[in-house]
Amino acid sequence: MPYDYENFRVEREGDVLRVAIDSTSKMNALNRTMTDELLDLAVSLHGDDVRCLALTGSDGVFCAGGDVAGFAADADPSTEMRRGASLLHDAVVHLRRAEVPVVTGVNGPAVGAGLSLAILGDVVLAGEGSYFQFGYPRIGLTGDGGSTYFLPRLLGLRGALDFALRNRRVAAAEAVEMGLATDLVAADALDDELTAVSEALAAGPTVALGRTRQLLAESFERGFEAHLAAEADTIARTARTADFEEGVRSFTEGRDPAFEGR
């Protein structure tokens, strides 16, 4: 499907949907139009035949959070903040529930809402020179975009408190050590690595990978027996896919599988 946005550059590269944040606001900040576009983009993943989403920034910046200059112009900041956060959260929910892997390539500052988008990736590639920061305390706000949900799960409660309350600016190498990011990548190799990882995931059994990311995410919300029931239901449904048939056939024939994502 065509994508015509003011704040994102979108390209379809084979089975990968490549998205670059290219905001009309400074530092790739999240403005009102950008939030609307992000929601549209996230919803589209459910009806497209994309097999992997690759999200990165542009011009040495991933996303530095909300458009603070825009906040200053709001006549009713509380109402506008609720509206913006609600739209952002709808987008985050759709990105989290999409049955395709998500890879983020963090090429610069990932702060505030930008941090939320960065750590939403199933695989988070941190380019050298990039950094991660909670950001909200700088302007007297609490977090949104799922940041206060994901941080304790990635860092543990003590680590999340330290990172968020002290508003620590964490460089790429430390982000990998902490668990905020998956791999440290040389800045000039980030684009190639993002492509390689995304293409490898896109060549996999898309339905199985998408459902696996859902099971892993939902494991925090269920009791053990309820989660086992969800596993049984999901593996049974996934056994109806063409990729399962191909996986079994290729295994018995001693060759690599050629998955089609269905």
From TrEMBL:
Q: Which GO terms describe its molecular function?
A: delta(3)-delta(2)-enoyl-CoA isomerase activity
Grouped into one coarse class, the protein's main location is: other
Show the InterPro entries listed in the entry. Answer: ClpP/crotonase-like_dom_sf, ECH/Chromodomain_protein, Enoyl-CoA_hydra/iso, Enoyl-CoA_hydra_C
Q: Which residues form a coiled coil?
A: none
Q: Which keywords label this protein?
A: Isomerase, Peroxisome
Cellular location(s)? Peroxisome
Supply the Pfam families for this chain: ECH_1
Q: What is this protein called?
A: Enoyl-CoA hydratase/isomerase family protein
Which source organism? Halomarina ordinaria
